[in-house]
Each structure stands twice: as structure tokens, then as C-alpha cells.
């Protein structure tokens, strides 16, 4: 008998049909990947399975019996747990406190010592090296994700829904995380694995369901397919990452960082006398293990984080004294942040409004201090089409778009402002293969037009695809700068570990 049957599920939001007669069988003790483009309906389907949404038609069967769920509490009572792409943890609490938070009876009178012992035993049984007494804010992202999984397992979940589980992980954390999924499978847990990353599907999945435009288009055993076939099934065409690479012909230096020093949110030094140059018509890629100052670097250049010392020169001008708005207007700096939900977008605003947030206070977005809603509608319709943003309406709150489509909204807004310098952080994180191809070709077009692109990412394969030069960060410094053809795995590994080299 199948463990779960998703039986003819249909779900609409107004006139937009997010799911259309979806039927999937999921075996007990298997890793079942749900693969699809941004906006294909994957997360909507999982939200129905977790009790966050109710289907318009169809039902969910668990061990042959129909489930009636109106909330996540109902899902948990049936042994279904969900680990969201954006973690639901309280950073100031310990692992134990996070795991028991929300259990019946609340936190008062809780025997923490007993819970801590059981959590330690549970973590050990599934191969998680986690200290229950540690405060969550001290843990790397990979460990925080394991805490989320422990929360579900502690509530007796035997079905785990993982929504883009590796999108927040550093490359060094992904391998061990995928191995932990195999450990859970060996203990007869059923895992639904939502992802865009084909190599991860091939590494861990037993079976793959492909969705496109709210429908199931294919279902196949992972052992009987290839990444290229899956990419073709996912986007409905042959995807070979046909990047229109532009030959590098760098111009003058348009951005120069001189011995930048800055601290992170905890007051710890994140940038340690960091220096680099970016030229017009060049893509300078910065990579490294997450947490070595990349986010702080992007925020310092954009004006979101103060410098303790050092200088940032844009086209020969020191922009340190300029605020965010003046850096955009006077220095031509565009910024795509790492955290699209909290820094890049206003989630409760419509998509059309998010498109004009950069220039809302000037023509053509507004006239005489009033927003021009007709212009906003025309602008949104144009950008949705040109940037292939999947949505039901430009007037819907941007929070209801998939993560990849939210990223496209930010990219469209910043690129359409015609920046001279584009600082882009984790450009392709959470995007499907078709969207990655689109984003990277767009960056090549910017480069060809003379824009200097500072491309910061922990996804090394994308940096290698697109960068003219690659700088590696370690503990707030650039330990070396390489040309792509020089970037062997051995040399990159040395630089990521702090073994410095001569800068190119």
C-alpha cells in the first residue's frame, strides 16, 4: 500500500489555477522528489499536504485513509512535518527550547533536563551532531536546518516535507545534509523533497515527480533518468544552459574597495582590511564558504551597513558618506540582496508596487507626490512578460509568489534602473534551471553594455559559469583572485581554507 496518495488535487486562487488535477503516489520509506520550475505549484501542493491550504477538489490519503486537515496541528497529529525554506526558529533560544516550543503545556514547568536528554539521544540516532544546550544563533545554517528536522521528529513525524532544503546551505554543508536524508530513509521515514537542483535529485531520490504549470507532467524512477532529461521534462524544452557568454573587455575601474573594515550584527569583525577592484564591463565573482563576510561586504557597498574604516570609490569618488538612495542615484549602484523577503521586498505590497520601490518618488512612477497607478499597471505587465514572472495578477501581494519569482521581481527592478554597478548576492539561489539560464544571460547583457557586476555567491558552479575573475573570501579577506581557467577544485579549496595567494 502507498504511504501517501495525493488524489486529484485542484487549487485555485481567484482566476489563477495553481494546481490542476494533481495525482501522485508516494511509497513508504522513500525519498520522493517533487521537481519543477518556479511557480509550478510544488509549494502550494505541499502546503495542502501540511494543512496550510484546503484543496478545492480532491483529497489526501494516508495509509489508505482520507485525511481531513484544517491546520498544521492536524498534519502533525497525523505524523506529517514540514521544514520550510525559511526557518521557523527563535535564534535567542537553545536547541532544546526551540524543539519543545509549542508542545502541549507550554514552556512553564518543563523538565528541560529530561527533554535535553531525549533530544540528544534522538539526534544521535539519526546522525545529527547537535548540542541541545547551544543557542540557535551560534549554529551554522546546516545545523539550524537539522534543528528544524529534530522538531518534526520529536513530534513523532514519519513523513517529512522539505521545501528547497539546500537553498540556505553552504556548499560544504550540502553533502552531509543529503547523507542525513539517506539515514532518515533507512529508518523508514518518508521524505518529500522539493528542489530545483537536479544533481541532488540524482544523489538521493528514489522517485521523481515533475510538475509544470500546476500539473504533473512526468513521474519516473531516479535510477532510470539523467539530469538533462529531468531538465527537459521540467521546463518543456531541451535545457543545455546555452549561455551567451560575452568576451571580457574590461574598461576603467568603476568600483574600488580599499582596506574595508566592518562588523557583523553581533559586533564581530566581518571585513578585515578587504580590498578589490571592479572594472566596467566585467563580472567579478566573489565566493567562499558562507559566513566569511560576503553578506556584510554587499551591504557595506550598498550603504546598508556602516564602515569602521576604509574607502569605497565609485568612478573615482569616495561614496562612503552617501546614504543608500544617493549611492543609487549619484553612483549608479544597483543592489540585489541575499535576503529577498526581508531586505529586497515589501511582502504585503502588490507585485506592481514592489517593481517601483526604487523610484517610487519620481516620474514616471509618481507625479506631484501621488503614485501613478496606470503607469504602475503598464510597467508591471511589461516586466512580468519580459522577466517571465509567474503569478496570477500583478496586484497580488508579492509574498504569495514562489521564492524564484520573488527574485525575478527584484532583478527586474534593479536592472531596469540602468545601474553602472550591480551588486548581486546569491543571484541564482532557489531558481530553476530555466530561470538560472535567463538570469545569467541577463548579466552577460549588462556586462556587454559596460555595467560592472559584483557577483557574490556561495554556489561555486554559477560563479565559474559567469565570472571573468574570481575572488575567494575567508574571514573577511580575499585570500586570492583567480581566472576561471585557473580555478581548480584544489586551489579553490586552499583559498576557502585561508591559504592566501597572489592577487590577479
Description:
- There is one protein chain.
- By secondary structure, the chain is an alpha/beta fold.
- The protein has 2 domains: 4-235, Rossmann fold (3-Layer(aba) Sandwich); 253-345 and 419-496, P-loop containing nucleotide triphosphate hydrolases (Rossmann fold), CATH 3.40.50.300.
- It contains 17 helices and 22 strands.
- The protein has helices at 42-49, 72-77, 95-100, 112-125, 141-154, 171-186, 198-204, 227-235, 294-302, 324-331, 340-344, 351-355, 373-386, 403-416, 433-448, 460-466, 489-496, and strands at residues 4-13, 16-26, 31-36, 57-62, 65-66, 80-83, 159-163, 190-195, 207-212, 215-221, 253-263, 269-279, 283-287, 309-314, 317-318, 333-336, 366-367, 370-371, 421-425, 452-456, 469-474, 477-482.
- Strands 6-7-8-3-9-10 form a 6-stranded mixed β-sheet, with helices on both faces. A 6-stranded mixed β-sheet has the order 16-19-20-13-21-22, with helices on both faces.
- A hairpin with a 2-residue loop joins strand 17 and strand 18 (370-371).
- The N and C termini lie far apart (61 Å).
- 45% of the residues are buried.
Quickly count the domains: 2
| CATH-defined fold name of the largest domain | Rossmann fold
Rg over alpha carbons: 23 Å
State the secondary-structure class.
Answer: alpha/beta
The strand line-up of the biggest sheet is 6-7-8-3-9-10
What is the tally of helical segments? 17
Poorly predicted parts: none
Helix content: 25-40%
Q: Specify the overall morphology.
A: globular
Biggest sheet statistics: 6 strands, mixed
CATH class of the largest domain: Alpha Beta
Terminus-to-terminus distance: 61 Å
Estimated share of beta-strand residues: 25-35%
The CATH H-level superfamily of the largest domain is P-loop containing nucleotide triphosphate hydrolases
> How many beta-strand segments?
22
- Mean pLDDT, rounded to whole units? 87
The second-level CATH architecture of the largest domain is: 3-Layer(aba) Sandwich
